[in-house]
Amino acid sequence: MILMTQILHVIGGGMAGSEAAWQAANLGVRVVIHEMRPKVGTFAHQTGLLGEMVCSNSFRSDDDEQNAVGLLHWEMRQANGLIMQIADKHRLPAGGALAVDRNPFAQSVTDALMAHPNISVEYGEITELPEDGQWIIATGPLTSSALGQAIAAETGAEALAFFDAIAPIVYFDSIDMSQAWMQSRYDKGETEEERTAYLNCPMDRDQYEAFIDALMAADKTEFHEGETAGYFDGCLPIEVMAERGRETLRFGPMKPVGLTNPHQPDVKPHAVVQLRRDNKLGTLYNIVGFQTKMKYGAQAEVFKSIPGLENASFARLGGIHRNTFLNSPTLLDQQMRLRSKPSIRFAGQITGVEGYVESAAMGLLAGRLAASEILGAALDTPPANTATGALITHISGGAEAKTFQPMNVNFGLFPPVEGFKGGRRGRKDRYKAYTDRAKSAWHAWLKAEALDAA
User: Which residues bind FAD (predicted)?
Assistant: First the structure.
């Protein structure tokens, strides 16, 4: 008979939970994934598939020499990461970014986990913190109310929360291509398909000013009593950005740089709205950076004022949902364990990382740490000069607990590299030094882990 402690239980089948289960199972540990969907749904999810993408379909930059996110991609690939394997399989043209066909992606994640001999899936909601066994809680930003309350009761502190906004998706055949054109910013990409991965809708000054006026005047979703709108800066609703200044959007998601309108090559647009392909067929495009809390009727009206989208049909309008995360620097140790209940680890967005890639990376690490503990082989966390190590160092004590907020991976989390100039001029060499150092350290960590397991 196998004891409960020899089985790893993972609550949540999103990016982090799926990756955690995959990593632990590949190390020889039996894993049970507990997923409440489709029995219990959420505002943002559409299916009961594991690894479903609920916001963007982009894993962001895939540049592993000059970008911290791309470096994280690289580290996960080196560690046999499931999420990156499946993402590469269902890749879509997106310039220098890694975007995927979301539904086939989730189906493939589900199929891979279901087919693994060491993994089983149980559907149903977990409403209490478990008292025995080894567990990873990877319930993400949409942790159920009951489990969230149980976590808050155990930690003695209220879970922090911000609101995460979802961008709308448009049917391609409803876009007026006599006004719009296909081009990646600065023509990024190695192939013609990559260099034309984005759809662009130009605005002149009057159109932009009218758009800002409409955006500011539109009906927005109201917050319930007691809720606060503490947005994560990397996912601000466009109307919140507009409230910070009329030019904010023009220097953010609507910046007109690196683009030439072939319909009017001699006219520089005042602003540009970009859309990115959302599925392999190219029938769906999401409006880049256009997360919103406008009401549905207002969204349709405001977005149809964009040149080229006057007759747009929407496959999905934007929305807003509560995003729950822990004050991890005070609650978790470096092994990602809850200090007050070390048999429970946390992984993914609930730990205070932001983004699909970061969530999956924390799942990868939690799965390996938990499996090693079960197998009786101690495993150190990766060094802080790797992308994965920089994230775990940040959330487990590197961040200031009093002001802790969700964080994307970035080179600001890495220990400095000596001998390189600061500022923009030295950035290329400095970033290459960061990634070279990280790759060497990551390989050494993986090698040490393999020796310990042996």
Answer: 12-17
Task: Reduce the DSSP state of residue 166 to 3 states and report it.
Answer: strand
Question: Which amino acid is residue 2, in one-letter code?
Answer: I
Instruction: Indicate if the alpha-carbon torsion angle 328, 148, 87, 94 is positive or negative.
Output: negative
Give, in order, the Cα–Cα distances in Å from 243 to each of 167, 206, 208, 378. 18, 18, 15, 50
Binding site annotation covers 289? Answer: no
Q: Coil, strand, or helix at residue 30?
A: strand
Q: What is the pLDDT of residue 145?
A: 84
> Is 15 marked as a binding-site residue?
yes
Tell me the two tokens of residue 393.
Answer: 């160092």
Q: Which residues pair with 181 in a beta bridge?
A: 200
**What's the CA gap between 45 and 55, in Å, rounded?**
9
- Structural domains in the chain, sorted by start: 4-159+326-453 (3.50.50.60), 165-322 (2.40.30.260)
Cβ contact 305:211 at 8 Å: yes
Provide the pLDDT confidence category of residue 1 given band limits of 50, 70 and 90: very low
Q: Are strands 169-171 and 319-325 parallel, antiparallel or unpaired?
A: unpaired
- CA nearest 407: which of 393, 422, 420, 419? 393
- Are the CB atoms for 100 and 87 separated by under 8 Å? yes
Check the annotation: does 17 bind a ligand.
yes
Backbone angles phi and psi of 294, in degrees to 5: -70, 150
* 3-state secondary structure string across 354-368: CCHHHHHHHHHHHHH
Instruction: State yes or no: 13 annotated in a binding site.
Output: yes
Q: H helices of 375-423, where?
A: 387-393
Model-wide pTM > 0.90: no
Backbone angles phi, psi at 46, to 5 degrees: -110, -20
Predicted confidence (pLDDT) at residue 3 exceeds the cutoff of 60: no
Is 12 one of the annotated binding-site residues? yes
